[in-house]
Design a protein that fits this description.
Length: 142
């Protein structure tokens, strides 16, 4: 992964249902230096298959269960793209990072989402009350 420099940069933050490829490319076109994906749940990413979409010139991660799109990227954003993961498990987080490492420049663990889905799964803001889990996730990612 390329080392990202954050000082003095314009950054598109991770946003649910907005941080998809078209928005990220538009943000880059309008001056963003770094763009984030929307939160992608570790299990969903791990259950996907990496496919080179020659028609669109993209790399697609397709859910093997229902053929739905989990994550889409392209070479134009690779050096400025951070994937945000929803996780509550260090081993799954590390496996997900390994799976996408050649297509992104950074990996972010969501530790702030207050939505019920994240909290029930021990992800997002729920991690703030579980420092042992945070340590395990971050240690396994390094």
């Amino acid at each position: 992964m390329t080392r990202l420099e954050y000082r003095g940069k314009m950054i598109l933050a991770p946003m649910v249902k907005v941080g998809t490829l078209p928005m990220r490319l538009l943000a880059l076109e309008y001056g963003a230096d770094i763009v984030y994906t929307e939160e992608i749940i570790d299990m969903r990413l791990l259950g996907s298959e990496r496919v080179e979409n020659k028609l669109l010139g993209t790399i697609d991660y397709i859910d093997r269960r229902d053929n739905s799109l989990v994550f889409r990227t392209c070479p134009k954003e690779k050096d400025r793209l951070v994937l945000q993961i929803g996780t509550a498990d260090g081993d799954r987080a590390a496996a997900a990072a390994k799976k996408v490492e050649r297509d992104i420049s950074g990996f972010d663990v969501n530790m702030g989402c207050p939505k019920g889905f994240s909290l029930k799964g021990g992800m997002g803001a729920a991690l703030l009350t579980q420092p042992h889990k945070v340590r395990d996730i971050l240690t396994k990612l390094v």
